[in-house]
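Weekly modeling sync, notes
Attendees: S.R. (lead), two postdocs, one rotation student

Agenda item 3: backlog of single-chain predictions. S.R. asked that every request posted to the team notebook include the full sequence so nobody has to chase files. The rotation student volunteered to paste the first one in as an example of the format we agreed on. Action items at the bottom.

Example entry:
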Amino acid sequence: MRVINSRMAAVLLGGVAAAAFMMEPAAAQDASPTPSPPIETDRAASADGVIVVTARRREEQLNDVPVAVTAFTGETLEARGALDITDISNVTPNTTLETSRGTNSTLSAFIRGVGQQDPVPGFEAGVGIYLDDVYLNRPQAAVLDIYDVERIEVLRGPQGTLYGRNTIGGAVKYVTKLLPQEFSAKLRATYGTYDQAEGVLTASAPIGDLVRIGGSVARLSRGGFGDNLNIPGVENYNKDVWAARGTFELGGHGEPVLIRISGDYTRDKSDPRNGHRLIPGLLSGAPVLEDEFDTRAGLNAPEQDVEAYGVAMNVTAELTDNLTFRSISAWRKDESYTPIDFDALPAVDVDVPAVYRNEQISQEFQLLYESDRLHGLVGFYYLDARAYSKFDVLLATTGELLDLPGFGQQTIGDVRTDTWSVFGDFTFDVTDRLHLSLGGRYTVDDRDSFIFKQNQILGADPEFGGTALPIGAPITDFEGEARFKKFTPRASISYDVTDDVMVYASYSQGFKGGGFDPRGSANAAAIDVNGDGDFSYQEIYDFFLFEPEEVDSYEVGIKGAALGGDLNFALTGFYADYTNVQIPGSIGIDADGDGVFEGFSGVTTNAASATFKGLELETSASFARGFAGAGSRMIFAGTLGYIDAQYDEFIGNLGTDVADITDIQNTPTWTASGTLGALVPMGADGELNLSTTLSYRSETQQFEYPSPYLDQEGYALWDASLVYSFGGDRYSIGLHGKNILDKRYKTSGYQFLVTDPATGLPVVGGNGLPTPSLGREGIATVFYGNPRQVFVTATLKY
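Predicted structure, as returned to the notebook:
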């Protein structure tokens, strides 16, 4: 068994050694690095300057990058009252970023139809999340709160060459602010509906000419949108978070070397998030609750607790006028205890106490080259990660096997990942206007998975506060290894039609890692594969294994500015051909043949192929300058996303093609938004910033098969903000409203109902109600997006 902490030490020491080695020759260079272009304070106001992004792992102006990128500066996000990264979803084309089902901290991310629904280990994300260029290997603790942020970039389409495996749909980059050279302090306080009370204190100071230290402490709290009517004192959808960041910087600000060591910590003690039942209890007759945010969930053990922390060291050294060296070393760890009550009722019907533990170390080296005609980089990346989960499925059911007190089933998944890759990407300026880019990445991905499943009685595992005892032999006690290798190329050609307008065409490949289904049951392999009762290792191995998912993507676009920079636009068309699409599913297990399911087995197959094609439009404009005095202006920012996402083939559980009744999950055909704002100077040193945003998402299907309970029809959301800054931007006070019309919309859910294999729809009995496939009450439980919130934010800068 690998010892991840020893490798962590080796990686960090290696980064330190590299930094020390590079500092001396770098300091000997006469030329200072070219200063970065300024980051603008408002994406919609970019006509007054340039927005710089690092989508190709080097600094470039947004309009010069032949990639579909949406960028938000920290000032823009603050002015709009953004609370966490899910807030950018509604104003980014073909993008879905949502809080997952059990906690406030687990992220579900989809871009252009690709993502991850189930957060258990063994399943890989289709969207890469990066914190200061450090890849977050798991979705737990990935709902990043917005504070002390420089910018957030959303890269759409496969980014496999520069960002590697699991960026098959795209990447989200969260970039924190560098420390200033002078002392600074900022206090932000927020109060709003549902007892929202937040405070963020940020401060930094120089120590001599080369060293700076700084940090932030955040208290983020809110009362629940609803209550647990079964457990007094427990709220539903509340927030109780402490967070902190600390940074040490050496060099930079004109020096040829910058060493940045940063650490972050988050503790989320919010109450469990429980869903809303859409059907009455099929056994108890419990009625559907009137308030969508209330619950009757009875499971409250283990106590919900999410803790995440990490440390990273980023080193940049200017070796010569043309060469720059970078090293990114990181270690991260998180642990999430969460009680998941699928049935959302007091009785133990389908209750799942769970724990997730993740740990990773990573090291990346880059060597960047810049000359008059050639620009690019080569690099090496290594990741050593462990993802572990344990959960009990506590069932209340009857049957010959289950006439036992507190019957349950425990599943443990322990996935070790070793992956390394070498990559390169270069742009050659054929002429001053014609640019050709070529890149490639070779990846070796090793997976070592342990899967254990055991029937038990007398409730939950002792780690979850229970007294469970195992019964019989383990259902599954499996360990398997697999190695996947892949070369992912990228090529693009761009042409500057004018100094302000660029057209481009690109081709790229990406892949999403394969593995073993961590919820699988060995007895399902024997029963479903050939029915001979032979539990051979090879049969189980083949049943659990799924291959990487792959994509070939083609993109054309135009980006530019007009009207003297007052109008900016980006129009993208894309086509993607997906093969070996991974389809996670589950089947009930009736081991004794009495017609009653005693448990379930995960079944993940490469059962589908799909074709995605669509358009994305982003515009921003400044107009009506001087309408309310000198310096005033109106601003408009608009986005439009269209995607035709279809399965070409989808082999269902019965072995037949059911592509005609399935659809791509979490992928609305249309996404759109429009923001209208105004900037009005007030007095000698004040400014009023007003904005209002209307966003729209068309009908969304939660899973591949349709569900009249979980699927969400099209809906629109209206937000608005008013921020007054004065004292030379030293003070500000803002009023923000989100979901002002208090729209109820579904974001995720659970369904365990018998479905018709011909239609995928739930089978309805003579009583007009569906038939449960697991448990006795029937499960059609949904989670909703936040209701109307109104809050005031005040800031003080020094």
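Discussion: group reviewed the output briefly. Confidence is low (pLDDT under 50) at residues 1-48, 398-402, 527-531.
Action items: rotation student to repeat for the remaining queue; S.R. to check formatting next week.
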